[in-house]
């Protein structure tokens, strides 16, 4: 039996949820599942269409991006995943998509304002958009640098990766993560839903106000306060 069977199957199941949830078209995205004890993660192979995927095709890579198991080339975004796993021991899964609304906000280089209680159920701040990558970073080890850009952004803005489990990269697209890969998929779906609602909110009322602090607090706390079961199904 392949010793990486569990993470390969978890990564496969997560990847297969992405088209089902309407978060990817063709091969526009990837999910990975990590085993921190072994220092590896399983990720979608690059360029393989979702209907063709099997658990066995998942590529196992270490936290420096070296392939340790698998016959196919790992996703082009592998080094971004590797950097995040290496520096953030609390995450067990990562998802990258080009989902329409979240990507449109990334392309617009804007944080997604907290307009409604759906957003506040998950996060008490605007969904952050990191600046587009600098030319030197693009010309260098681009995917590795994308991971560093995410780390830099969290450090500069004093954000906790276990509280804020998503980011938009300006000019590119979103990355989400979580304690498990299922939670990372859940976060990706929530992000797309909230991004769509924010887009429509601004179309209907370009002057729409940010959600009041009292409602942000109330909605977040009633979902995440003591004894809460919110989101547990996905963790
Ligand atoms: O960001 C992009 C494309 O801009 C990639 O994530 C996406 O096309 C997926 O590529 P892979 O098939 O995972 O190599």
Automatic annotation (TrEMBL):
| One matching Pfam family | Aldolase_II
Q: Which residues form the signal peptide?
A: none
Q: Which UniProt keywords apply?
A: Carbohydrate metabolism, Isomerase, Metal-binding, Zinc
Q: Which GO terms describe its cellular component?
A: cytosol
Per UniProt, what is one GO molecular function of this protein?
metal ion binding
Q: Is the Zinc keyword given for this protein?
A: yes
Q: Name one GO biological process term.
A: pentose catabolic process
- Per the UniProt entry, the Enzyme Commission number(s) are 5.1.3.4
Broad class of enzyme this protein falls into? isomerase
According to its UniProt record, which cofactors does this protein need?
Zn(2+)
The protein's annotated catalytic reaction(s) are: L-ribulose 5-phosphate = D-xylulose 5-phosphate
Instruction: Enumerate the spans annotated as Class II aldolase/adducin N-terminal domain.
Output: 9-199
The entry assigns this protein to a family as follows: Belongs to the aldolase class II family. AraD/FucA subfamily.
Q: Which PANTHER family match?
A: FUCULOSE PHOSPHATE ALDOLASE, L-RIBULOSE-5-PHOSPHATE 4-EPIMERASE SGBE
What is the recorded name of this protein? L-ribulose-5-phosphate 4-epimerase
State the species of origin: Parapedobacter composti
